[in-house]
């Protein structure tokens, strides 16, 4: 049997998660906003029909949303992080090989399924996902991951296909390859789209038929690989095991400007605690952290400043207390009064598996890693049981005290991760 991949993704995913738990939203225009309720980052088809664009600032569309009955939600990351796990559990019942590509997209290998049965299987998968999780999806089938992604694009744009497009079908392949513009190809951004236009490409079929030497010259080996994938020759296999994280960052814009050192320290300590949590989840550590904070370019009538500081540790660590201490040192080293800071963060790169990392020499600040690991294990266990942020370093403060923290004024309940938020059906 021929090789076949599928790409399945959730439609208007964040909005669909909100609709799962509120049946009143079924045909209502819905949008979800970014951090601090800034911009529209997810829209239902009904909201798109009203002219609401992706990334449009909420303050510009507030009146439109009110007059047209648009339901507006703050981002509910706990909900949006849990629902994909449920969806992928369903996918694993249809294929043993799966790559979780993003929060709402997964590639599946259907090479072992007969060509005549693939569309039927994908329709069954869509129906099962909708029935078991409430999330609507579209599925694209292709001989390569690039073609599967392209097929998924067609499935979303053409309702007559019923949510499934099969580009392993020669008739469908020839039909759509001649009708899709090059800029809709996976990974072709504006610069490469301009290069393909200069090479005379008006459709995906034109890109497929290019001389690979010309493409390699214009777009390096990445472009050559793209052409081969469009021809049905797989150059990208499934990544069933996620690659080891190379870097990690925790950054946030403040809900209000920060003008004093104590508040900045609290914010950075909170970010450092979250960084430690992320590193421990992957068994990774770091021997350096970069702390940054800056003002907003929108405060044009105020002085501007952007600073960062790299703090080196004696050995790799993921201990929250160690990271907080290092990050606070970075803040104090670069702090200057008289500015209204809008954002801060902590960033680290060159992560290493902590178990195999080099230890510090005795007498040069060697860290008690075993003792710290036991303490961090207890901290993580408490936060898993009682909710993230239940136990934090004192320097990070508690949520009610954090006037700088990100705004989520219109966030829906955390239906799937908080027992007290589980929907309750009342008997009539």
TrEMBL record:
Protein name: DNA-directed DNA polymerase
Provenance organism: Methylobacterium ajmalii
Family named by the database record: Belongs to the DNA polymerase type-Y family.
SUPFAM superfamilies linked to this entry: DNA/RNA polymerases
CDD domains in alphabetical order: PolY_Pol_V_umuC (cd01700)
Entry keyword set: DNA damage, DNA repair, SOS mutagenesis, SOS response
Enzymatic reactions: DNA(n) + a 2'-deoxyribonucleoside 5'-triphosphate = DNA(n+1) + diphosphate
Subunit note: Monomer.
Cofactors: Mg(2+)
Domain UmuC: 5-189
Function: Poorly processive, error-prone DNA polymerase involved in untargeted mutagenesis. Copies undamaged DNA at stalled replication forks, which arise in vivo from mismatched or misaligned primer ends. These misaligned primers can be extended by PolIV. Exhibits no 3'-5' exonuclease (proofreading) activity. May be involved in translesional synthesis, in conjunction with the beta clamp from PolIII.
EC number in record: 2.7.7.7
Highest taxon, organism lineage: Bacteria
């Amino acid at each position: 049997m021929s090789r076949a991949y599928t790409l399945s993704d959730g439609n208007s995913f964040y909005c669909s998660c909100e609709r799962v738990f509120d049946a009143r939203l079924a045909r209502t225009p819905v949008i979800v906003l970014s951090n601090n309720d800034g911009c529209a980052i997810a829209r239902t088809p009904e909201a798109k029909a009203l002219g609401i664009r992706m990334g449009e600032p909420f303050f510009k569309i507030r009146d439109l949303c009110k007059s047209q009955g648009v339901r507006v939600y703050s981002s509910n990351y706990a909900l949006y992080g849990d629902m994909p796990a449920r969806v992928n559990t369903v996918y694993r019942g249809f294929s043993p090989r799966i790559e979780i590509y993003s929060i709402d997209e997964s590639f599946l290998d259907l090479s072992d399924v007969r060509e005549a049965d693939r569309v039927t299987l994908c329709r069954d998968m869509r129906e099962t996902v909708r029935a078991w999780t409430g999330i609507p999806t579209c599925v694209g089938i292709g001989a390569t991951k690039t073609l599967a992604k392209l097929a998924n694009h067609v499935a979303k744009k053409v309702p007559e296909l019923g949510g499934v497009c099969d580009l392993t079908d020669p008739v469908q392949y020839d039909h759509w390859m001649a009708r899709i513009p090059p800029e809709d190809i996976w990974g072709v951004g504006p610069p490469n789209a301009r290069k393909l236009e200069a090479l005379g490409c008006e459709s995906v079929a034109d890109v497929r038929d290019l001389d690979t030497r010309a493409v390699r010259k214009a777009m390096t080996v990445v472009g050559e690989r793209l052409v081969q994938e469009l021809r049905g020759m797989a150059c990208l296999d499934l990544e069933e095991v996620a690659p080891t994280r190379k870097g990690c960052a925790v950054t946030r814009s403040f809900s209000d400007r920060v003008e004093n050192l104590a508040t900045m320290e609290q914010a950075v300590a909170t970010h450092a605690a979250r960084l430690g949590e992320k590193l421990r989840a992957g068994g990774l550590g770091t021997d350096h952290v970069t702390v940054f904070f800056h003002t907003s370019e929108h405060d044009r009538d105020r002085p501007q400043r952007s600073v960062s500081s790299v703090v080196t540790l004696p050995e790799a660590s993921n201990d929250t207390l160690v990271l907080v201490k290092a990050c606070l040192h970075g803040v104090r080293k670069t702090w200057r009064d008289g500015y209204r800071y809008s954002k801060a963060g902590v960033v680290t790169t060159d992560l290493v598996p902590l178990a195999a990392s080099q230890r510090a020499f005795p007498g040069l600040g060697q860290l008690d890693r075993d003792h710290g690991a036991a303490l961090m294990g207890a901290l993580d266990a408490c936060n898993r049981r009682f909710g993230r942020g239940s136990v934090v370093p004192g320097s990070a403060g508690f949520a009610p005290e954090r006037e700088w923290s990100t705004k989520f004024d219109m966030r829906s309940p955390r239906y799937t991760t908080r027992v007290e938020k589980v929907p309750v059906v009342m008997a009539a």
